[in-house]
Design a protein that fits this description.
Layout: H1 2-19, E1 40-49, H2 68-73, H3 79-86, E2 88-92, E3 97-105, E4 143-145, H4 148-151, E5 159-162, E6 167-170, E7 175-178, E8 197-203, H5 219-222, E9 238-251, E10 269-273, E11 283-284, E12 297-302, E13 311-321, E14 325-328, E15 340-347, E16 352-369, E17 372-381, H6 384-395
Parallel strand pairs: 11-16
Antiparallel strand pairs: 1-3, 2-3, 2-9, 4-13, 5-6, 5-8, 6-7, 7-10, 8-9, 9-10, 12-13, 13-14, 14-17, 15-16, 16-17
GO molecular function: peptidase activity
Protein name: Serine protease 23
Keywords: Glycoprotein, Hydrolase, Protease, Secreted, Serine protease, Signal
C-alpha cells in the first residue's frame, strides 16, 4: 500500500509540473477567436409530415465507406443543394413531425467555409495506420472525471447524456447539441426519440471532498493541455437527473433520400428541453482550420459505454479535415458520440480565454481502401451555415446570429 501511494504521489507530482508550465514559455503564438460575418438561414415554409414509426434502436456509432480523400473529391454543393440539405425536420414531444424549408442569404458558395480564418490551404494530411483495438488508438489517453467539485464545474458540467445512449452538450439555456444519428438512423426516428430525455450527472452523496485532495482547484483549465493521463477516484455513487425534450431538430442533409452519399457531413441535431437546465452552457463557434487551433488540439467529454456512470474527457490532435469534417484519433467508445467538440482560444474582445463548441463528435469510421483498413474518429465541423442554422434554432431570430 505504501509503495502504491508513493507511485501515485510521484505520478501526480509529475502531472502537476507538466500542467502548470507557464504558457509564455510556449514558442507558438497565442491563438485567437476571430469573429466573422455569418450568413442568414431563415425558415420559409413549414408543413406537417406523417407520424414517424420509431422502428429501430439508436446506433451509438456510425459508418461510412467514404474516407477523407473521397470527401475532398465530392463536388461542392450548389446554393439549391444547400437549401435542400439545410432544410430540417422537427420532432415534437406529442409525436407530431414537421418539415421546414429554408432560405439562405448573404452566402457566397465559392468562398472558404471559414473566410475569417483563411490562411491558404488546410494543414497537410496525416497518414492513418491500421489499428487493432477499435476506437482506442494505442495508449488509452482518456480521463475519468469524478467528484462533485469537478463534475458540476464548467466545462465538464456542460456534458449530458441522452436516454437513447449518446452524449450531448449544453449550448443554450434549454438547448442541447448532439449527433443526428442519436435520434434518427437516416431512414426513421429511433425508439425513444419521441420521449427523449436528457440526463444531468449528479452525486448521490454530498461528500466529495476526497477528490480535491488529488486535483488542483483550477484543474479544468490545465487538464486540457496536459500530456499525461489521470483518472481520479471513481467510487462516488452517481445518478442522472432527467429533463424531457420538447422539440428535436434534424437537418435534411442527414436524412436519407435528400442526402448525398456523404450524410455524415450533417450528423448533428439540436434538442430543446421542456424547462431550463439552470447550468452554464458553452457558446457556439465557427470551426477554424485545424492548423489554427492551439496545438491543433480538440477536446470533448462524454459518457463512454465502457465506463458506466463516469464522465470521460479526452483531447487529441486534429488530423485531416474537409470543409465539413475533422478526422482525429481521440480515444472514444460508443456512447461518446454526440459530444460537443470544443477548442480553447483567446478572446481578444473580452480579453480572456474562452471555450467554444466547434463541432459534434460523430463516431468511429472504418474504411476499407485498396485492401487495407483505415480507422478514424470523425467530428462534424460547425461551418458558418451550420452556425447560422443552429443559432437560429436556439435564439429564434437571425439578428443575434450574425457574428460567430
Amino acid at each position: 500500500w505504501f509503495t502504491c501511494s508513493l507511485l501515485l504521489i510521484h505520478r501526480f507530482a509529475s502531472l502537476l509540473c507538466l500542467l502548470f508550465l507557464p504558457p509564455v514559455l510556449s514558442s507558438s503564438p497565442r491563438r485567437q477567436w476571430i469573429l466573422q460575418r455569418i450568413p442568414v438561414v431563415l425558415p420559409q415554409q413549414t408543413k406537417a409530415r406523417p407520424t414517424p414509426q420509431f422502428l429501430n434502436e439508436a446506433r451509438l456509432d456510425v459508418a461510412s465507406p467514404c474516407d477523407p480523400e473521397c470527401h475532398k473529391k465530392a463536388p461542392l454543393p450548389s446554393y439549391w443543394d444547400l437549401r435542400s440539405l439545410l432544410a430540417y425536420e422537427t420532432l415534437h414531444s406529442d409525436g407530431q413531425l414537421t418539415e421546414t424549408a429554408i432560405g439562405i442569404y448573404g452566402y457566397n458558395p465559392y468562398s472558404s467555409t471559414s473566410p475569417a480564418y483563411s490562411s491558404g490551404s488546410f494543414g497537410k494530411a496525416e497518414r492513418s495506420h491500421v489499428r487493432k483495438k477499435r476506437q482506442i488508438f494505442g495508449h488509452d489517453g482518456r480521463f475519468s472525471i469524478a467528484g462533485q467539485s469537478f463534475l458540476l464545474k464548467y466545462p465538464f458540467s456542460v456534458a449530458v447524456k441522452l436516454s437513447t445512449g449518446c452524449s450531448g452538450t449544453l449550448v443554450g439555456d434549454r438547448h442541447v447539441l448532439t449527433a443526428a444519428h442519436c435520434v434518427h438512423d437516416g431512414k426513421n426516428y429511433v425508439k425513444g426519440a419521441q420521449r427523449l430525455r436528457v440526463g444531468f450527472l449528479k452525486l448521490k452523496q454530498r461528500d466529495a471532498q476526497h477528490s480535491s485532495m488529488y486535483l488542483p482547484s483550477n484543474f479544468s483549465n490545465h487538464i486540457e493541455g496536459g500530456p499525461a493521463q489521470y483518472s481520479p477516484p471513481a467510487n462516488d455513487k452517481m445518478k442522472f437527473q432527467w429533463i424531457r425534450a420538447k422539440r428535436t431538430h434534424v437537418p435534411k442533409g442527414w436524412i436519407k433520400g435528400n442526402a448525398n452519399d456523404i450524410g455524415m457531413d450533417y450528423d448533428y441535431a439540436l434538442l430543446e428541453l421542456k424547462k431550463p437546465h439552470k447550468r452554464r452552457h458553452m457558446k457556439l463557434g465557427v470551426s477554424p482550420p485545424a492548423q489554427r487551433l492551439p496545438g491543433r488540439r480538440v477536446h470533448f467529454s462524454g459518457f463512454d459505454n465502457d465506463r458506466p456512470g463516469q464522465l470521460v474527457y479526452r483531447f487529441c490532435r486534429a488530423g485531416e479535415e474537409t470543409s465539413d469534417l475533422f478526422y482525429q484519433h481521440c480515444d472514444a467508445q460508443p456512447g461518446a458520440s454526440g459530444s460537443g467538440v470544443y477548442a480553447r482560444m483567446w478572446d481578444g474582445r473580452r480579453r480572456r480565454w474562452e471555450r467554444k463548441v466547434i463541432g459534434v463528435f460523430s463516431g468511429h469510421q472504418w474504411v476499407e481502401k485498396k485492401g487495407t483498413s483505415q480507422e478514424f474518429n470523425v467530428a462534424v465541423r460547425i461551418t458558418p451555415l451550420k452556425y447560422a442554422q443552429i443559432c437560429y434554432w436556439i435564439k429564434g431570430n437571425f439578428v443575434d446570429c450574425r457574428e460567430g
